[in-house]
Amino acid sequence: MMCILQVSLAIVEASVNRLCSIVYHTKLFLRTKKWATICIASQWTTGIILSFPTILFNDSRCSDQLWKAIYRFVMVVIIPSIICLVNNMMIFKYVRSSTNRIQTSLENAKNNAQQHQHLSRRDLYLLRHMIVMFCIFVVGWSPIYICGAINIVTSITVTTRFALIIISELSLLALISNLFLYNHELRRYFREKICHRH
């Protein structure tokens, strides 16, 4: 259970860090190794704590129980989705309010119409990106856990389960790739590290 949770918790942690880097970009503490250590420690601590119920209330007579499948689905998909959605909404609200402040200050500029269009396009791009990330996570990870709950009641073929596992892994790969491609600072960091080695 704890290993399964770590994937979702890592995605939640990434959304929290993205929120902090955008909304609280002036806080120097958020760029320190101490902050990174706190994030990693909190992720693993949360994973351990959330795994306790499945260990403490384990019935050795049953190979799997319905409440465990529902608990896994809620902890791995539902709650992380809600947290990521809230974080993304806060990011969008902050970026939108920043855009409105810039637009107000540029009202008397000659190219106000062009600037307004550019900023609106940026807001729409950010919103579209966040919606795509949210959908990739929910659509990729929900089926395997719903299948796990259904499998307790009725039998599901191994091929179906294998296909759903592949879908969840592909969605994880898509999320990691998307975060890497969208994060300009991370790309620049890797470029600098690779270029300085040669």
Automatic annotation (TrEMBL):
Domain G-protein coupled receptors family 1 profile: 1-182
Topology with respect to the bilayer: Multi-pass membrane protein
Keyword terms, alphabetized: Cell membrane, G-protein coupled receptor, Membrane, Receptor, Transducer, Transmembrane, Transmembrane helix
Coiled coil: none
Biological process, per Gene Ontology: neuropeptide signaling pathway
Upper taxonomic lineage: Eukaryota, Metazoa, Spiralia, Gnathifera, Rotifera
Gene3D superfamilies recorded: Rhodopsin 7-helix transmembrane proteins (1.20.1070.10)
Family matches, as PROSITE patterns: G_PROTEIN_RECEP_F1_2
SUPFAM superfamilies hit by this protein: Family A G protein-coupled receptor-like (SSF81321)
A GO term from the CC aspect: neuron projection
Transmembrane segments: 35-57, 69-92, 131-156, 162-182
Subcellular location, record wording: Cell membrane
Pfam name, any one: 7tm_1
Protein's name according to its UniProt entry: G-protein coupled receptors family 1 profile domain-containing protein
GO-annotated molecular function: G protein-coupled receptor activity; neuropeptide binding
